[in-house]
Amino acid sequence: MAWTDTPFTRRLGLRFPIVQGPFGGGLSAVDLAVAVSEGGGLGSFGAHHLDGAGIRDVVTAIRARTARPFNLNLWIPFDGSDALTADASTFARWLAPLKPYFEELGVALPEPPARYSPRYAEQIDAVLAARPAVFSFVFGIPAADVLARCRELDIVTLGAATTPAEARALAAAGVDAIVATGFEAGGHRVSFLRPAEQVLTGGLALVPQVADAVDVPVVAAGGIADGRGIAAALTLGAHAVQIGTGFLACRESGTHDAHRRALLGPAAEDTGLTRAFSGRLARGIRNRFMDEIGAGPIAPYPAQGWLSGRLRAAAIAQQRTDLMSLWCGQSAPLLQQAASEAFPAAGDYLQRLVAETDAALSRFHSRPL
Ligand SMILES: Cc1cc2nc3c(=O)[nH]c(=O)nc-3n(C[C@H](O)[C@H](O)[C@H](O)COP(=O)(O)O)c2cc1C
Prior knowledge:
Elements: H1 7-12, E1 18-20, H2 30-38, E2 43-46, H3 52-63, E3 70-75, H4 88-95, H5 99-105, H6 120-130, E4 134-138, H7 144-152, E5 156-161, H8 164-172, E6 177-181, E7 187-188, H9 203-213, E8 218-221, H10 227-235, E9 240-243, H11 245-248, H12 257-264, E10 271-274, E11 282-285, H13 288-294, H14 303-317, H15 346-366
Helix pairs in contact: 3-6, 8-9, 10-15
Bound molecules: flavin mononucleotide (FMN).
C-alpha cells in the first residue's frame, strides 16, 4: 500500500498516516489513544485541562498498554489567558448570563476560582519529562527554548495552522510538521495570527496552499471521516490526516453516550461556530445554549470555559442535550448509523478507513473519471 509510506509515517514509524485528533476538556481517553496507536495510527491525548501530575498519570496509563508512538497535545496561552483574574464585580458580570441555566439545572452558583486553567509552564515541563513521540499544540507557537528542547529529546513537534501564513510561521520557528485545519473541523478554530472569525478557509482550499507554503510534512484536518476524504487529502498534498469527529464517536472516546448518539444521528447535520461554551470560537451541534448564550456577552477564554464547565456535569447527568457542548465537525453525517447499532470500536473504524482509502485510490487509478 504505497499511500501509507509518507515522510510522516516514516519519521514516526507508523503503519498508517492517520492521526486520531486530540480532544481537550476531558474528552480524550487512554483507551482511545491506545486503540489507535496499537492499530497502526497515531493515538493522541489532549491534555490542556490537566496539571503536571494529571499529565504524568495519563502517560503512565498509556505506556502501561502500548509501546507504540503517541501524541500529547496542549493549548498555547495567549493575551494573558494563562493568568486571567477577575475582581468580584467582573466575575459577577461574567456569571450573570449563565445564572438562569444554573437555576434551571438546580446547580449552586460557583464562587470565583483561584485559577481558570492549569499552569502552562507546569504542563510543558510535564510533557517534556514524559518525552512522547509527538507533542502537538494549537493556538500558537511554543517558545524557542521549548522547541529546542523537543529537538534534543527527539520529540516530533506538530503545530496547527488555519492559513498559509500561520503554517509559514510555524515552519520558520522549526516546528516539524503542520496540521492544516479546515473550517469543517469539530472543536475549536485554532487560528492564532488573526481572529478566528476572519479565517474560515475550508480544507479543500487550505491543504494544497499549506503544502505549497512549507517544506515540512502536512497533516490535513477537518471534514475527513472516511477513506474518500483520506484519499482526497493525500491527493491535495497532505502526508497524513487527523480525524477528530470520527474518533470522538467511537466507544473508547472520553465523551458520553448522549453526545455519541448526537454525532451519529440526524442532529449532526446542523453544526455551527460559537464562543458560547469556552470564550473561543468552536464548532458543535447547534443547540439552545449555543443560540441563547452565543447571542449575548460572553466572558473571555478561559473564564467562560470554566463557568460553563460548572454546568456540564449536571447537564450530562440530566441528559440535557440542549445545554451541553456537543462538539462536532461537518463530517459527522458521513458516520450515521442506526440508533440500535453499538458505537463503533476505534480499531475497527481505523481498519475501515484504511480499506476505504485503498478502494478509493484504486478506483481512481483504474477507472476513467
Ligand atoms: C471535542 C473536540 C475537542 C478537540 N480538542 C482539541 C484539542 O484540545 N487540541 C487540538 O489540537 N485539537 C482539538 N480538536 C481538534 C481535533 O483534534 C481535530 O483536529 C479535528 O477534530 C479534525 O476535524 P474533524 O472533527 O472534522 O475530524 C478537538 C476536536 C473535537 C471534536
